[in-house]
Amino acid sequence: MSPMHAEHSPDESVHGAPHGNVNVNRFTFSKDTLQWITAAICAAAVLAVIIVSYLLHDAYRDIQTQVWLKQDKEEEKFQKFVAGPYAQLAGELKANEILFDQCKEKRK
Hints:
mainly alpha, 2 strands, rod-shaped
């Protein structure tokens, strides 16, 4: 078997000149039905992975937003407690301390 020269390609898939680099680019598709089915299944699987990963990312963002909203509501409830009943209780406690100190001073 003798080497084929690029300038004498029978199907014109190889182009070249003497002493030049030869690049062979062939794109062929198989006519076999099993390979077509396999390729379609692989493409569907890749597409499914992309869609599911997007949906999981979107769901994660929704859950994170719900967590932030819940934390905000809890913080709001805490602030209302501090400003409302706790503030009243703290004021009453401070008043009792002052009265207790005054009573201690009077006993001396």
